[in-house]
Each structure stands twice: as C-alpha cells, then as structure tokens.
Design goal:
- This protein is mainly beta.
- The chain folds into 2 domains: 156 residues, Hotdog Thioesterase (Thiol Ester Dehydrase, Chain A, Roll); 131 residues, no CATH class.
- It contains 5 helices and 16 strands.
- The strands form 4 sheets. Strands 1, 2, 3, 4, 5 and 6 form a 6-stranded antiparallel sheet that branches. A 5-stranded mixed barrel has the order 10-13-14-16-15. It has a 3-stranded antiparallel sheet with strand order 8-7-9, with helices on one face.
- The longest helix has 11 residues.
- The protein starts with 6 loop residues before the first helix and ends in a 9-residue tail after the last strand.
Length: 333
C-alpha cells in the first residue's frame, strides 16, 4: 500500500512549540467584583470566595487573561504564529472550527490584587483526522499563567479546524429512512443521573434533595455539595421558572435538528436558557414559544415535555423544554 504524504500536515507540524503569545498581561488585576459576578452566575456560595481572605475560584483562571469584547490594547502579547497557522488551514479549505475540550491545572490560588501575566505556545497539531463534521486537524494551545515570576496555573485549549463534510450524493430514499439516519443525540445516562431521565420519561422533572441538610441540587450528583451527605430523595418541580440567563445558538444545519420549533426553526438560531426553577435550582434547556431574538432575562416560563424521533423504530426521546407563558412576554426584568 502506498503511503500518502500529508504535505499540509507536515507544514502545520512546524508550528509546534512556536509562541502564540509572549508576556501578555491581564486587563485587570484579580478583583472582588468579578469574583462575585462569577459566583452569582455559577450559583457557587463557597465562603472561600468572600471576605478579607477571599481567593478566586480556580476555574476563573482563563478569565483573568481574556481581553473581553474590546480585546487587548495593541494585541498585547500576541505573535503572528497562531494567525499564520489558521491562514494555512483556511487556504486548505479547513474554514470551520469547533472547540473540543480544555484542561486546567492549578498550582496556587489567585487573590484580589494579583496581576496576571501569561505566555502561550502552540503545543501540538494532530495528524489529519476525519470526523463526522469533516476532515481537519486538532490544534492544542497551552497558556502558562503567572503572578510575578511564579507559575500559578496552566490552561490547555483544543480546537478542531476542519473542512465541512459534503453529502455523498446518495438517493434521498423514503422519508422514514432519511429520518432514521438522523436521530437526535441521546443523553449520556449513568448511575448518578438515571433517576432524572427516568422521571423525564414519565413527564416528571425530579430534583435531588439531601436527606441530611435538605439542600436541593441540580444537576444530579452522587453526594450533597453543601454538607457532603451521600443520601438523598427527590421532589418534583412545579414547572414554574424564569430565564436566569441565555445564549443564542448558531450552527450549521444538522439533519437531526430540522423540525420547526414554533416561531424559529430548530435548524436555525435558537435560544438555550439557564432556567431558574421556582424551587431555587437551575437547569439548562431550550426556550420555546418565542422567537430567539425576543428572549430576555427574567421572562416567566413553564415546563413542558417534548417527544422527538417518535417514528416507532426505537424509544422516542423525551426532553424537558420551557415555554414562554402566553401574554407574559413583556415581563422580563
């Protein structure tokens, strides 16, 4: 068998080890307001993040290096290597990008007043890979974060830069056959969350409750994050809630997401909300019943259950979604 030499891959490999940023500086010192906003958004009430001896949540590591909407003044710390790498990929037709994963390592806590600096390096470029999205290359960038001379943490970020896969030109076939080939992804069910999905199948939204301290929690966990207790029971959510936050999703059309969804097609932009239930916990789900560009924080919503892939071949997929209550569209705070 002849060996096909990936000439582009060989060129991309020459970028491994090249700096993507040198001596970058955070726009602001580590500060209490940002810590407070982060904790409020995450619902994290850990006392370590408040008071005179407060530390920043470790997962905020990358936040202190980000340039925000205005970016870093003068592109602080940036080198041309990263842009050159992406230009090569674009020229080769790898014009699409998707984030795949990130890893963080924490060496010491950050505290209000710390001034962060960072360096970044293109750590690795994979061999050419073919995925369901298309063919391309995984690029991993490592960022080392420092306070003064001390390394305080490391952030690795991996993306796939790819050429979108093209249809193979197969005949359309019968509608039911086409649908069978494009079923919605199923949730990953394990021993910790099986009870939640069993409840959803019965059109019940169940919330875990610690039997030791009574704290409600979602998503489902093997133990209480307030007291550490391992024992729990459940309460059923009333279904009332409000939009605590939301994002608008834009992605290429996927055959599994072509069903229309009220005012907005599910294949086009749609709103995904962080819903605060009346019971006090939050859940991520689709916001329906209103065009995506009309969704606002504070909108009252009501739980409903929807069935997908209900074609009789396999078990239908049941998902909880939240509908904006009719006549209350203008009640956002």
């Amino acid at each position: 068998m002849s060996t096909v030499i990936d000439e582009l891959g060989a060129r991309l490999k020459t970028y491994e080890g090249r700096a993507a940023a040198v001596a970058g500086r955070g726009k602001d010192p580590v500060n209490e307001p940002m810590i407070r906003h982060w904790c409020e958004a995450m619902g994290d009430t850990n006392p370590a993040y408040t008071g005179p001896d407060a530390i920043a949540p470790p997962t905020m590591l990358q936040a202190w290096t980000m340039g925000g909407l205005s970016g870093h003044t003068g592109r602080t710390g940036r080198t041309g290597a990263h842009d050159e790498l992406f230009d090569l990929l674009d020229e080769a037709g790898c014009t699409s990008v998707v984030a795949t994963d990130c890893e963080q390592e924490y060496l010491r806590p950050l505290r209000p007043g710390d001034e962060v600096t960072f360096d970044a390096v293109i750590e690795s470029v994979s061999d050419r890979k073919t995925t369901k999205l298309g063919t391309g290359y995984f690029v991993t960038t490592r960022m080392d974060v420092r306070v003064g001379p001390d390394l305080v943490g490391t952030h690795r970020f991996r993306i796939l830069k790819y050429a979108p896969a093209r249809p193979k030109g197969k005949p359309e076939g019968k509608p039911e056959e086409k649908r069978a080939r494009a079923r919605r992804p199923r949730p990953v069910v394990n021993r910790d969350n099986a009870g939640f999905w069993e409840g959803v199948e019965r059109h019940r939204l169940l919330i875990q409750r610690c039997t030791h301290c009574g704290t409600l929690r979602h998503p489902w966990l093997p133990g209480c994050n307030a007291c550490g207790g391992p024992d729990w029971d459940t309460v059923e959510a009333s279904g009332e809630g409000t939009v605590y936050s939301y994002v608008v999703m834009h992605h290429p059309p996927f055959p599994a997401f072509t069903e229309s969804d009220d005012a907005a097609g599910a294949a086009g932009p749609y709103a995904v909300g962080l819903i605060e239930l009346a019971e006090g916990v939050r859940i991520v789900s689709n916001v329906v019943g209103l065009p995506y560009d009309k969704v606002r924080i504070g909108l009252p919503v009501r739980l409903e259950f929807r069935r997908y892939d209900d074609d009789g071949e396999d078990a239908a997929l049941v998902l909880p979604v939240f509908r904006v209550q009719e006549g209350r569209e203008g009640e956002a705070g």
